Each structure stands twice: as C-alpha cells, then as structure tokens.
User: What shape does this take?
Amino acid sequence: MKHNINQRYINLLLCVAMLAMLIAAILPIFGIKWEWLRYAFAAAAVLTLVAQLLTPNPGKSLRARRLARMNVWSSVLYCVSAACLFIHDSSMQQSWVAFLLAGAVLQIYATLMLGSNSSK
Assistant: This one.
C-alpha cells in the first residue's frame, strides 16, 4: 500500500514537471519571451530527472530495466537542453531544441515499450 501511494506521488511529480516543461518550451513559439521561462524549463527538467530516478525498478526483466534507464537518459537530455539555454554561445542556445526532441523521442519509445512489455 505504501509503495502504491509513493508511486502516485512520483507519477504526479512527473506529470506536473512534463507539463511545465511543455508550457515553457511552447510559449516562445507564440512570441512570449519572458526571462523566467528558461528557469521554469530548467526546474521542470530537473524535476523530471528526480521523478525518473525515484521510479522503482520495473521488474527483473533485462528489457524492462533497460527501458527504465532509457527514461532516465531522456531526463538527462532534458537537463542538457535546459543547460543550453543558459550558455551565452548562439549556436548552443539554438541547439536546446535538438536535445529536447531527442529526449522526447527516447522517452516516447521507452514508455511505449514499457507499457507493451508490462501487458504481457
């Protein structure tokens, strides 16, 4: 029971962090360029990493553990994307989107495969 409640909080933390990261990434597309957006994006990226690290081991299967590590690496890519926003080199400030997309693709793949793996 205690494990189930903790997992709910971790999932809630991950959902809130991913939503905050999405909002902070999309607002500049609509012309809203506030200085604090990069701080919000960075905080949300760190929260996704914390949530992924706190997620319990999915099982004894080597495939499930590999996919869980892929989720952690996607969060690391989000943190690298956030770090690119703070570097004052113009080429690095433009590459934050590449790291964000790489993390998103990795997370989508790992999450879909974990879901199909657990249904078997």
